[in-house]
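Form P-L/3: holo structure prediction, ligand fructose -6-phosphate.
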Amino acid sequence: MEVLIFPDAQSLASKSADLVESQIKAFPDSVIGLATGSTPLGLYRELIDRHSNYGLSFKLVKTFNLDEYVGVPGDHPQSYRNFMDENLFNNIDIDKTNTEVPDGMAENPLKVGPAYEKMIEDAGGIDLQILGVGTDGHIGFNEPTSSLGSITRVKTLTMQTIEDNSRFFKPDEFQPKLAITMGIQTILNARRILLLAHGENKADAVRDMVEGPLSSFCPASALQLHQRTTILIDESAASKLTLKGYYKFVGEMQDDLVRKHRPSDWISR
Ligand code: F6R
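OUTPUT (holo model):
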């Protein structure tokens, strides 16, 4: 697990966009796993800017979103499909038929997971997965105590997640309590993972994920098992890490090594 610490959310967004851009330039038909929420918004703004002003093309890219609410139609302002359209897809040259989000309105939500897994497999697997982390350590909607071997399925959200997300729904509006989410094993199957986190409210989750025991109680700690995960965090999200100084030192050493010997090593396929 590589931990990169940035002075602020903007430099973190810019570095994560560099990594995504390198992936797409090396493999224009890359398969990218995407997250919603406030965390990746800076990354998506950067990618839109690089598309609009610097010719970065997504024409052949295929995407799979991590999750979607059950019972919220794709054209609802709070659906994750709508979030992706508004914050990324409508502003780049991606072919929308190449963008997959789990179908939260499926007649039988229990059938969505296995079909989604099959679609990912048919696409050749995920080259690069973007993740945020919940304040309770969830990734996707894999809430605490989710099986570390889970695949895409319906999950019941915790009260904390429902509360965290209530800011997006009007007080009298239906707020979903179920979601369809890629599983922890689905995420671990990605060849490369970038987890982004900023802000003090993520400091506990980041500490548990990086330095805590491997435990389904902090689903993000499962990333400790993955060979090519990079955690990109700002100083506030890093504030509770015991070995913060060490991660910075590793960053400097790695920069030097990579510059000298394997400049595009992180790119995966
Ligand atoms: C969203 C997702 C969630 C979020 C997490 C953090 O697709 O999978 O795991 O990444 O809840 O949300 P924000 O970024 O809003 O703090």
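COMMENT: The beta strands are 2-6, 31-34, 62-65, 67-69, 99-100, 128-131, 153-156, 178-181, 192-197, 229-234.
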